[in-house]
Design a protein that fits this description.
heterodimer; A: about 230 residues; alpha/beta; Rossmann fold; six-stranded mixed beta sheet; four-stranded antiparallel beta sheet; 8 helices; globular; B: about 190 residues; mainly alpha; 2 domains; about 0% strand
Chain lengths: ~230, ~190
Amino acid sequence: MPLIEFAEVTHAFGDGPAVLEDVTVSLHERRIGIIGGNGSGKSTFVRMINGLVVPEAGTVRVDGDSTANQARRIRRKVGFCFTNPDSQIVMPTVAEDVAFGLRRLKISKTEVQERVAAILETYGLKQLADRPAHTLSGGQKQLLALASVVVTEPEVLILDEPTTLLDLSNERRIRREIEQLDLQVILVTHHLHLLDGFDRTLVFHQGRLVADDHPDQARTTYRALI
Amino acid sequence: MSDLMTYTAGTSIIHRLPAGAKVLALAVVSITTVVIERPWLTAAALALAATATVLARLPRRLLVKQWKAYLVVVGLLGGYQWLTDGPAKAFQVAGGLAALLALAGVVSATTRTTELLELAVRCSTERVGITLALGIRSVAVVYDLARDVRAAQLARGLGFSLRAFAVPLVVRSLRQADGLAEALIARGFDD
């Protein structure tokens, strides 16, 4: 698994208060959970991993590459799935959106078609391939967002509250898909049961990393904080 | 209405035409209709649009949606032209617009955005192609946002107010644009 290293990272947006303060941590486990209240800094933390946010102080490295100057290389390794799939879906139809991420890989059209067909089959979206993406249900949109990232074969997948907008059935579906992924997964969530079976969980509170533990202990710490 | 500008799968002869041919035909009809102001030309453009619509075998549901939107614009423009320049000019202007909207609807409904994107990339750059694709996708997104804003107003018992409608729509559109930009970067389109 890739090694993600945060060294003395502090960050604030503009003149506002620090959203992350003095975070130092190394991540290499297969399944890592991130929990914390709203505004605790967890989303900023994961955005830093693929360079969407570059820290004002400190460094973030993925397999030795710094996000400050090698973000493009890092983004080929680190996929990102957002809370709201509507923000992530770029192309008008389902198949086109899955194919969109592959444009940057400079692979042949035949391979693009094969990879798109395979991932749509895996995620049960094959019948919806030509449907306008915005007409899908919330669960289908989140599956599409996930498929569009996974098809590019990243080594790390960051999921920022992917089940927040979903009902119970779709939450289970996404959870099942996440469980089957053979890559490093970093999951930000308020749905604490999703962390069952995870290797490690970080707890953020007011911009600080306050616990770094097994999910059971981390959940206890988080509950005590709120 | 939000699927007005998106591809509708099909196997019709119009679907099978190359994207370049369709876009070129649309451009030729557009320029000819606007530059050469003749009623017979407007009639020919309308006939061509009707033929293309029939040949494309688009779902009736989509056509009804398309024309509900188009008729408002065409009707207002035609009415204004009738009052100011008479029926011949109204037919020419509103009929020409109707023909072009219908043809544009047929082209966008029978051509995958990827094909349009490839065409744009061949003619200019990938950046232009992606911008076009995002433009097409944004029509649906902004329409959905507008519908949500209006629904929220109605739920709060408010009548129509342009400011109360426009402000949240602009704010949400900008927020959506920010999210989309972030997603594009995350998906590796960061140059």
